[in-house]
Design goal:
Length: 1291
């Protein structure tokens, strides 16, 4: 026995072996395949009238040597033959029938019955007419359909298909047919499957068997016809008679000669044979009844007449043996019992079979018949398994294996862990250990099989039986989940020494690999699969099969942890160890070599890229160089592809990008240059309401700090060059040339600019910039990059790069915008600036100015883009503290800019930027001449003014979307000090309409400065101080009504023009007084007074500009004459009461004024003059005499108080306190220091005067060289003489 059935299972012991053979030369292979598919689906038949079922397995090829082992094990005997042929006339039928007879003669020793199925003739055996042939040709051109006549008798129990797992192997011609086994094959792609029609066929076929209890006696409605005399088919009858006579001479007992004859069934075509399945059912049922008769005959056979059953190799050993010995008779009896057990298993009586096997063991054991005892043990195990799991099979129909697949080679599938296997190809679910009531448990089965294998090993000629028994035991243990014990039986297969052909060796190792995979021994499974692959191309093999070698190597990859699809690998980065690098490299090299020998160069290149990607870290420098050299040579002959490669076996080898050549450390999408980066227009962004920040300690939601940012916070512009930066490493020992590197994008169309960088050997952190240009607007999704390295194109997706957390990047592309260049006429700054990159500074401008100097700068905008500029907005940016100050330094004309728009392509726009060196003109200790502390901040030195001139511009479609660009000029102005003020004051002039401004100015620059003012010019050297006088006209008080001190200084600067000139540098400037602070008294001197005073002291007129005091001796009378004239045009006091008063006072040491001088001064006359109604054309005159009793310095204060309208002089009212005056009234009495006045009304507080009058008198503080106008709420006014009247009394 030379051929091993590697798909043998325990359930094969209960199956009928039926051969299906193509006969003749006219039958096409595809027609035979379709007929085979339909017949092979029938694997289980219920016996009519009995509760038993018969199991079937089909083969196309079966050797005569294998058939000779039918006496040793009955399931190895071919019991039925179905020949399929084609003919169209009588001559062809004669040839076909002769071929059919030869097939029967080959298996005549074992056949119970046979059939010949003929296609191409009418059902009665006549030839098909031309019209019928034309119709058949039309039917063959359309897809075939399987249909069975439903008009079938169904008088008894409906038979069912017990199992439809008809997995058929083309090389071993083995059908599993629903047995308890592990299916090692996959479906046949040539087979047509129609589950609905098949189930209907099975149902109708079952019904057809219930109407008859005997075989070959009546017609059951199908097109299968048993041989009998027929007037329409005499030639069939004649041929049958001849066949019967020839077979009766050559056949042995139990052969076909016992049947009335063989059958011939005619069908017009393969598409028109609806009763095919029914006829096959009737045929196999006839086999069962023949078998049942044989079983019954054997059961009642006398022991003394029994014949010794022999294995094929035993025939020569029993020649000349004495048949009368006791041991010989025991062997006859024991072997007969064992044979009865085989027949019982085939007949569906597993319980009786077990009894026969046990009896046979008892009989054969004393005579040491080891071979047949081993067969008995194997039969006991088979009976136990069949009994234990009877009824657990599922009735499902499966596809058969393809005819084109070699023996033992299965279609690779992803292996699952052993713990997750829940179903098997034979339809059985994974079951717990459930021993049968009359059978053996799992442990007993193991022991019996071990004994059987031990006995088989005693016979070298039984090596095939031993190997098949090992496979059966392994599959049973897999079913019981005893994987370690199953591995022991597989190991026994390895040690069996058997002379096999190369094909059988391949099948042997492939079967071992498959079973090792099923018990979870992945690495060992891959080892035997690789051994099988090497056997395909062994040196002694005359016809090496590189295709099969490659297919087996691909199936062995998973056990070595080599994944063709890197997504299935647990390795997250190239070079990470997962498995055994030395073995993996060896296997991959074998794959590369097999692909080359197959002539599939793209496949070899794909394997080389996998080798580079997974094993580069573990290669030596020389191995790297050799692999690179070979890859370059391969790609030079046939450029690799990025598309997945499909093998003939159905395996898809996806594209494997070279992520590690070069190795990308970072992938950064860059924004446009800051001055080209688009942004929303300021007018659009300002309209958005400011958001309110509310802090809360509550955790209102989980924050995703670890979220990966995929949406860029910037935009690209249509038509502009954009950039992506890659930081890469070259891990190769030689210089690496990247032929091409571009981006992989989707969403919008882009224009790529491929690069060809060269990376130095073992370079680290090499920067590569990829340039692209978006050609439309929308969202650009960047998925990765594409390279061409060593001739291999690689599409590297970001999701596959271990160092890049993002799987993609989204960049928004906005409509096109114009582009300008920005320049200025000033030189660039050497060091700049305190502002960051967010200000988009493209150039700088620097200037050095002296305080008060002005200069101009020409700013130029040139349109370098492809769109006209339609909008230009100019603004200044600076720190928050000096924004107002910077706005005073830089000025421009916006209307001039707008008049030059739109700016066409290549056009130029210019505007003047005026720079004013605005600075402080006060030293740190500067003060007004009278030392009033009115300054909060001063500056003594120059300063540096830094600002950004921001130019926003837009146009085209980008402007419609409210986008713009911003370019800026950094401005740096050094303001050097020039002229500063030390002190300043106001004094009256000789004219009542003018006053003088006094300034003490100092030159704090390093140059000599000429100062020009009021048509005068002075020269100041460094650090020199000089006082200047500037005469200005006094103004009406109404002009300053409601103005603040700052507004007063601004107004006053309009009348003061002080300029400077530096001859050595030929520059000039202006000195501003806007920062000077003026006191209230100083402001009063600027007002034009409506009252004129003439004061005489002892006849001497005292001028307002009088300085110093007059000397008198104590006891001398001093006369004071006061004449007051009122300008009625500016002051309307006609009909109003007026009070003129004077008093004498002294200055104390603490700068306060003492009005209580009655002890030192005697007054002769009245100090007050009261006029009830003032005449518009009248003047006031008053005199008074003073005598001083003590020496010292004394001053005189003179006031004129004009009462408001609506007051009655005699009415009672409120009397206000006035310092220095005593007033009498009938109302409330007020205090007035220094004066005694009578009044009937409200008297206002006035320092140093006694006033009498009705109405409100305002508070007035006495001041020197000033005249104050005060008004109360009742419009009372007080006027003071501005002349300084001071006397020095000496003894």
């Amino acid at each position: 026995m030379e051929t091993v059935d590697y798909l043998q299972t325990v359930e094969d012991h209960q199956t009928f072996l039926v051969l299906i053979r193509p006969t003749g030369k006219l039958l096409a292979w595809k027609h035979f395949s379709r007929c085979w598919d339909r017949i092979a689906q029938l694997n289980c038949v219920m016996i009519p009238g009995q509760k038993r079922e018969m199991w079937l397995r089909y083969k196309r090829n079966y050797s005569k040597e294998s058939n000779e082992w039918g006496d040793f094990q009955a399931h190895r005997k071919a019991l039925g033959l179905i020949s399929v042929g084609k003919c169209s006339n009588d001559v062809e039928f004669q040839e076909l029938f002769e071929s059919y007879k030869l097939e029967k003669e080959k298996y005549s020793d074992s056949l119970y019955n046979s059939r010949l199925i003929v296609f191409g003739m009418n059902t009665d055996g006549t030839e098909i007419s031309h019209e019928q042939q034309r119709e058949l040709n039309e039917e063959e051109s359309s897809p075939p359909t399987f249909k069975i006549d439903p008009d079938e008798p169904s008088d008894s129990t409906i038979s069912s298909v017990c199992d439809s797992d008809a997995s058929v192997n083309s090389t071993s011609d083995k059908s599993q047919n629903g047995h308890i086994n592990i299916d090692d094959t996959s479906g046949d792609p040539l087979r047509r499957t129609n589950d609905q029609n098949v189930s209907k066929n099975n149902e109708n076929a079952s019904k057809s068997l219930t109407g008859s209890n005997k075989v070959a006696t009546e017609k059951t409605g199908s097109q299968i016809t048993f041989l009998r005399p027929s007037p329409k088919n005499d030639k069939v009858e004649k041929l049958a008679k001849t066949e019967k006579e020839s077979l009766s001479r050559n056949s042995s007992s139990g052969s076909i000669r016992d049947l009335p004859g063989s059958e011939v069934v005619f069908y017009t075509s393969i598409d028109n044979c609806e009763g095919l399945e029914e006829g096959v059912k009737e045929f196999v049922t006839s086999l069962f009844f023949v078998l049942e008769g044989k079983r019954l005959d054997r059961s009642f056979e006398r022991a003394d007449k029994s014949v010794l059953l022999l294995a094929p190799f035993e025939k020569k050993d029993f020649v000349g043996v004495d048949t009368d010995t006791k041991s010989y008779k025991k062997k006859c009896q024991g072997r007969l019992k064992k044979h009865l057990g085989d027949l019982c298993l085939l007949a569906g009586l597993s319980g009786e079979a077990m009894l026969h096997y046990s009896t046979a063991v008892d009989i054969l054991k004393p005579v040491n018949d080891w071979l047949w005892m081993a067969a008995c043990y194997e039969g006991i195990c088979a009976s136990s398994v069949i009994s234990a799991y009877k009824g657990t099979q599922t009735t499902s129909i499966r596809r058969n294996q393809s005819f084109s697949v070699k023996r033992g080679v299965t279609v690779p599938e992803k292996q699952k862990p052993v713990s997750t296997l829940h179903s098997y190809s034979n339809g059985l679910q994974e079951l717990p250990d459930l021993p049968s009531k009359s059978g053996l448990n799992a442990d007993d089965i193991v022991e019996k099989y071990k004994d059987a294998l031990m006995y088989y090993s005693k016979f070298k000629s039984a090596a095939v039986i031993e190997m098949e028994a090992s496979f059966k035991a392994c599959r049973i243990l897999i079913l019981h989940r005893k994987y370690l014990q199953a591995s022991d039986f597989l190991q026994n297969v390895v040690y069996i020494n058997l002379q096999l052909t190369d094909e059988d060796r391949i099948n042997r190792y492939s079967t071992l690999s498959t079973l090792y995979a099923k018990i979870g021994f992945r690495r060992k499974a891959s080892f035997f699969k690789r051994v099988a692959a090497m056997q395909c191309v062994a040196p002694q093999n005359p016809k090496p099969n590189w295709t099969l070698c490659h297919q087996l190597l691909v199936q062995a990859l998973e056990g070595y942890r080599i994944h063709l699809d890197q997504k299935d690998s647990q390795v997250k980065s190239p070079g990470q160890m997962n498995g055994w690098p030395v073995v993996q490299m060896r296997v991959l090299h074998e794959l590369i070599y097999s692909a080359r020998r197959m002539g599939n160069m793209p496949l070899a290149i794909r394997y080389m890229t996998i080798l580079l990607y997974t094993q580069l870290e573990y290669m030596t420098i020389q191995e790297k160089r050799d692999l690179v050299t070979n890859l370059v040579n391969f790609t030079g002959q046939n450029e690799g592809t990025t598309q997945p490669l499909a093998l003939d076996s159905g395996v898809i080898i996806p594209h494997v990008p070279l992520l590690n050549i070069p190795f990308v450390k970072s992938f950064k999408v860059m924004p446009l240059t800051s001055h080209l980066e688009p942004r929303k227009l300021q007018s659009v962004t300002d309209t958005s309401s400011d958001s309110v920040f509310i802090f809360t300690p509550l955790n209102l939601g989980a924050t995703r700090n670890d979220a990966v940012q995929t949406d860029m916070d910037f935009q690209w512009v249509e038509g502009d060059m954009s950039e992506v930066q890659l930081l890469v490493d070259n891990i190769m020992p030689d210089e690496l040339t990247i032929s091409q590197i571009t981006l992989i994008c989707e969403g919008i169309e882009i224009e790529s600019f491929p690069l060809s960088p060269k990376l130095p050997a073992e370079a680290s952190s090499y920067l590569i910039k990829i340039i692209v240009r978006p050609l439309s607007t929308g969202t650009l999704k960047i998925l990765g990059y594409s390279t061409k390295v060593l001739g291999v194109r690689s599409n590297c997706k970001l999701r596959d790069c271990p160092t890049i957390p993002q799987t993609y990047f989204n960049v928004k592309v906005i409509p096109a915008l114009p582009e300008i260049s920005l320049t200025s006429s000033l030189p660039k700054s050497a060091s700049f600036l305190s502002f960051g990159e967010e200000f988009n500074i493209v150039t700088s401008a620097a200037a050095v100015l002296y305080n008060g100097q002005s200069s101009e700068c020409i700013v130029t905008l040139q349109n370098n883009g492809k769109l006209p500029v339609e909008l230009v907005n100019i603004s200044l940016e600076s720190s928050r503290d000096n924004k107002e100050f910077v706005n005073e330094v830089f000025k421009w004309n916006q209307s001039n800019i707008e008049s030059q728009l739109p700016l066409q392509i290549s056009g130029v726009l210019c505007f003047n930027l005026v720079i004013n060196a605005v600075g402080e003109y006060l030293l740190k200790n500067a003060e007004n001449i009278k030392s009033y502390d009115l300054l909060k901040s001063t500056a003594t030195e120059g300063k540096v003014v830094e600002a950004v001139l921001k130019v926003e511009y837009s146009g085209g479609a980008g402007l419609q979307e409210s986008y713009c660009r911003c370019s800026s000029i950094g401005l740096c102005i050094d303001i050097l000090p020039s002229i500063v003020f030390h002190k300043w004051d106001v004094t009256l002039s000789e004219s009542q309409d003018h006053c003088y401004l006094l300034f003490d100015i100092q030159n704090i620059s390093d140059e000599e400065i000429q100062v020009k003012y009021s048509k005068q010019c002075i020269t100041l050297k460094n650090e020199q101080i000089k006082r200047i006088f500037i005469e200005i006209e006094r103004c009406e008080p109404t002009m300053f009504k409601g103005k603040t001190s700052e507004e007063f200084s601004q107004f006053l600067s309009n009348f003061v023009d002080i300029s400077w000139f530096i001859p050595s540098m030929n520059i000039n400037g202006r000195v501003g007084i806007e920062s000077l602070k003026w006191s209230q008294e100083q402001q009063q001197l600027f007002y034009l007074s409506p009252v004129s005073w003439v004061v005489k002291l002892d006849g001497q007129v005292i001028s307002p500009l009088h300085i110093g005091s007059l000397e008198y001796r104590t006891g001398k009378l001093i006369r004071i004459d006061v004449d007051v004239s009122v300008n009625t045009e500016s002051l309307d006091i006609d009909g109003r009461e007026v009070v003129l008063t004077m008093c004498c006072c002294q200055d104390s040491e603490n700068d306060s004024i003492i009005y209580n001088t009655e002890k030192y001064v005697s007054v002769i006359g009245s100090q007050s003059l009261f006029i009830p109604k003032f005449s518009s054309d009248g003047n006031l005159s008053h005199s008074c005499l003073y005598m001083f009793l003590c020496s010292g310095f004394y001053k005189f204060e003179i006031l004129m108080i004009v009462k408001g309208q609506g007051h009655d002089l005699q009415s009672e009212g409120n009397i206000t306190k006035v310092k220095g005056h005593d007033l009498e009234s009938k109302g409330h009495i007020s205090e007035v220091k220094g004066h005694d006045l009578e009044s009937k009304g409200h008297i206002t507080k006035v320092k140093g005067h006694d006033l009498q009058g009705e109405g409100h008198i305002a508070k007035v503080k006495g001041q020197n060289q000033s005249e104050i106008i005060c008004q109360t709420s009742c419009e009372d006014s007080t006027y003071k003489c501005s002349s300084v009247i001071e006397v020095n009394i000496i003894d």
